Every structure is written in structure tokens, then in C-alpha cells.
Amino acid sequence: MSEITIVATLTIKSDFQAPLLEALKKIVDSSRAEEGCYQYDLHQDNRNPMVYVFIERWASQEALDLHNQSEHFTSFAQFTKGKVESLVINLMHKVH
Fold this sequence. Notes:
By secondary structure, this protein is an alpha+beta fold. Helices cover 36% and strands 35% of the residues. It has a domain of 60 residues: Alpha-Beta Plaits, CATH 3.30.70.100. Strands 2-3-1-4 form a 4-stranded antiparallel β-sheet. A hairpin with a 6-residue loop joins strand 2 and strand 3. The protein is globular. It starts with a strand and ends with a strand.
């Protein structure tokens, strides 16, 4: 088993900031409760309040796969459709 880090940068459309922020907070709380989740934090860019960054750490690819298939994650993904300008997901591993 090898730990996986995700850095996901989400730029939301300004018309949807309030409802999306609530959804972002809910996905953090639900994800933190999952087995294999070591870290699931949400950050907001200091210069552009429409940019949010998730920093996630998972015990394994299997834990990440289960997260991606979870009801709360799939519902969140559906909810964000049409409300996001861009999404960049970086799958990483710790070097040092």
C-alpha cells in the first residue's frame, strides 16, 4: 500500500460561490470520516476568492477509489456541474 496525495484546484463561477462553498464544506466533513482518509483540507486563494484548493491524503489507491465511488462524492460531483470554470487534479506521492 502506498499513500496518495491529491491537490485539486477548483475555480468556481462567481454566481455560484455561496452554494458551492456550502457543498465544499460538506464534502470535506464527509470525506474526513472515510476509512483511509488521512487529510482532506480545503483552502481558498488569497488573491482570487473563486479559487479553492483541496489537499487530500489517502492511505492507498483503494481508499481513494472507494472515496470516488461514495454517495457523497458522486452527489457533490453532480451538484458542481455547470458551476465550475476549471478543475485541475494532481495525483502525487511523497518524495521526502
